[in-house]
Amino acid sequence: MAMRSADQIKRIVIQCSLPAALEAMGERWSFMILRATFNGLSHFEQFQTTLGIARNILANRLGRLVEHGILERRDCPEDRRKVEYRLTPKGEALLPTLIALRQWGEKWEAGVPNNPVLVDARDGKPVADVIVRAEDGRPLGLHDLRWVDRADLERAEARCIYTGEPIGAK
């Protein structure tokens, strides 16, 4: 990414949605609960037994994930005394994030197991690495990216529609 002034960086940092996303997810246990949910677990006892997490921490993290709309809490149809936690569309949208973090860990963290392998259910082949792509599908690296203010982007898009020139044309 291009070098920016301290003021530009400050504005980007203040307006960036990453802190809010991190606040919603919390820390390690939230990601572990989410992974378990993606793998079909839905009951408090299942999470507690499978993850080996303390009950008070689990209750706190589940509450936080529900509060942020990542999971929903509902009565279990088979046993009304139990509740289950299910992914919301907002929670399902975290799948690429979880896969990217796992792939990063497999590549860069020493001694991290790379088993089991995540495969495409249709053909049984391993899923491709999660990467950042341009709108036209090109893979993008760090030096291909830059931050722009949303209002500036919208003005550029409007100018593009009006003039027919691509965004970024001088």
UniProtKB/TrEMBL annotation:
Keywords: DNA-binding, Transcription, Transcription regulation. It comes from Edaphosphingomonas haloaromaticamans. Signal peptide: none annotated. This is HTH-type transcriptional activator HxlR. GO terms for molecular function: DNA binding. Residues 16-113 form the HTH hxlR-type domain. InterPro entries: HTH_HxlR, WH-like_DNA-bd_sf, WH_DNA-bd_sf. The keyword DNA-binding applies. The gene is hxlR. The keyword DNA-binding applies.
